[in-house]
Sequence to fold (157 residues):
Amino acid sequence: MQVLGVDRVVLATSDVDETANRLNELLGISFGEFFSASTETVAGTNNLVSRISPDGQLDLAGPGDGNNEVTRFLEEHGPGLYGVAFRVADLDEAEEHLAKKGVDPVGRIDWGDFSELFYHPQDFGGMFVLLAEFPHPVDTNVRMEFGAEAIRKETKE
Fold:
């Protein structure tokens, strides 16, 4: 398995807008528009909201409809570091490598050329780990474009 580097850091917050505004005010970090997505994991459907910085390195995740993993995380730990996404060269190879070590993903999402596996914090010392594969360099709001396309497809079905 070849890890190419950190893709992005995911912060959990109960108020995505407030946190985005505060980080912008204090640190000059801007964020894209709200992005809503549904993901399936072993825990069920997670309807989340997030805002991603234009460089794609910081992702503010919020509870969305309130019945999901981010909500449970916030209730137990409060706002803060939720997880880290690592970019890998080959997602299928990474999944196979970890499976041989007894670590299986709890969910997967595929949006166009972007794919991501989710791994439970118990397997990584308490940190939610995401493995991402995509064939292009990180581009401004590129994940939002893929996500918007996935949402449009779900809406049409």
In short: The chain has one domain: 3-156. The longest strand covers residues 3-12. The helical segments are 16-27, 69-77, 91-100, 142-156.
